[in-house]
Amino acid sequence: MKVLVKKTTNLKENVREIFSEFPTLKKLKNKKVVIKPNWVSPRKSDTGVTTDFKLVEQVIVQLKKGGAKIVIAESAGYDFDPRETFRILGTDYFTKKYKVPILDTRDCPTKTVNIDGKVLKKIKVPREILGVDLIFNLPKLKTHMLTGVSFSLKNLLGLLPLEERRKAHTLGIHQAIVDLGKFFKKTAVIVDGLTAMGGCGPVFGDVIRPQVLIASESALAADLACCKILKINFKKIDHLRLAREQMEFDGLEIEGIRDFKIKKFDLPKVSIIYRGIYRSIFVLEEILSPFFKKSIVAWAVTRFGTMPFILREKVKDKKELIRICPVRAIGDDLEINFEKCRFVRCLRCYDKFPQAVRLKGFSKPSE
Fold first, then answer.
1. Distance (Å, rounded) from C-alpha 101 to C-alpha 142?
2. Residue 364, pLDDT above cutoff 60
3. 0.90 exceeded by the pTM?
4. Same domain, 169 and 225
5. 134 found inside a domain
6. Does the pLDDT at position 366 exceed 80?
7. Which pLDDT score is estimated for 259?
8. N or C, where is the chain less crowded by C-beta within 10 Å?
9. Both 44 and 193 in a single domain?
10. CATH number, domain at 13?
């Protein structure tokens, strides 16, 4: 399985070259293509969290040149407000400039399908995704506190509505990821490594800047190549170990891997107890979901997870600090309104004024 690794010098040219290298991307006329980025939260791409708009744009340009019919499918993570996430990120840029619709996978018509997986038997899938000719997977190169890494296969989970994501966590997240990978077979992948995230990903880890793209027609091959590049033993990542055992694989052919070096990519240091507690919360929500509309998982993560607080004595530009908050959660007294910030946590204040804003919570990045 071919994987192309490119050190990014000219993004437009790099993406064009990737399209010219893979047969799947040469026959696109009148094909329906779903672009799946990673827009899990309102954090900017240069923090290593979300797929870079510049990459998404160049992929759209090439798809349109080939005559493809395009839709973007994505939604925010469990503990983020999807509407605010899209608004703050500015995803309407693609609908306005390129007339590409964006499907919020949390809130769209679905159809129950039998995927005959080991843990996922029947799942609800957005109707607009079923029967597409190609899923163009644009994941971020980053870590994940529950799954070790979040590359191509893990990114497919975002195609499902929340209740199916909850089911995946409840029944076994690693095998569920593999089940989805076997179901969504028609894929092309470009992993966004323009910026990446190590440590406590997928949202609040440490920024790394590899300036690299990893492309393939196979999500599994792309993920194994990412591990090789980052010097990670894929067998330590449970869903990749299972995928290697259960999915079709005819070897790895990597081109361009010698073109660059990357500094050490630290995986999350998370105990079995932590993962067990996290899964237990999903199980509890699954049991109680018929009786409660609000998510227990979202409540727990937003209550005890990463939140900013302001050191008043270190604020040098009060007006700008207040202005930069996209949900107006910072008051004149420099107190942060928790409820306004709770399901957003874009950390624009922290990114712009790291000397005056600190973070608290179990998933905060190292400082």
1. 26
2. no
3. yes
4. yes
5. yes
6. no
7. 64
8. C
9. yes
10. 3.40.50.11440
Q: Is there a domain that residue 367 lies in?
A: no
Give, rounded to a whole angstrom, the gap between the first and last alpha carbons of the chain.
Answer: 39
> Does 234 share its domain with 296?
no
Of all residues in the chain, the percent with pLDDT exceeding 70 is 98
- Is 212's pLDDT higher than 60? yes
Q: Residue 273: is its pLDDT beyond 90?
A: no
127 near 111, Cβ under 8 Å? yes
**Residue 326, token pair as written in the block:** 């996209």
Q: What does pLDDT average to over the chain?
A: 93
What is the per-residue pLDDT for 117?
Answer: 97
In a shared domain, residues 247 and 278: no
Q: Which amino acid is at 97?
A: K
DSSP conformational letter for 151 = S
Taking the C-alpha atoms of residue 177 and residue 39, their distance in angstroms, rounded to an integer, is: 18
Q: Which contacts qualify for 317-326: CB closer than 8 Å, 24 or more apart?
A: 317/353, 320/352, 321/349, 321/352, 321/353, 321/356, 321/357, 324/348, 324/349, 324/352, 325/349, 326/42, 326/84, 326/87, 326/88
Domains of the chain: total:
2
Q: How far is CA 278 from the centre of its chain?
A: 19
Name the one residue in this structure whose structure tokens are 């990597």: 254
Same domain, residue pair 277 and 249: no
The mean pLDDT value for 332-344 works out to 96
Q: Does residue 238 fall inside a structural domain? A: yes
Looking at beta carbons, which pairs linking 12-21 to residues 24 or more positions away fall under 8 Å? 12/58, 12/61, 14/213, 15/55, 15/58, 15/59, 15/61, 15/62, 15/190, 15/213, 16/58, 16/62, 18/190, 18/213, 18/215, 19/62, 19/66, 21/215
State both tokens at 59. 């992929």
Q: Could you give the CA distance from residue 181 to residue 153 in angstroms, rounded to a whole number?
A: 6
Q: Are residues 246 and 324 in the same domain?
A: no
Backbone angles phi, psi at 310, to 5 degrees: -105, 135
Residues 292, 250 share a domain: no
Domain that holds residue 19: 2-259
Structure tokens at 125: 């899938």
Helix axes 173-183, 238-246, angle to 10 degrees: 40
Rounded to an integer, what distance in angstroms lies between the CA atom of residue 186 and that of residue 218? 8
What pLDDT does residue 309 have? 95
Residue 149 near residue 123, CB atoms below 8 Å: no
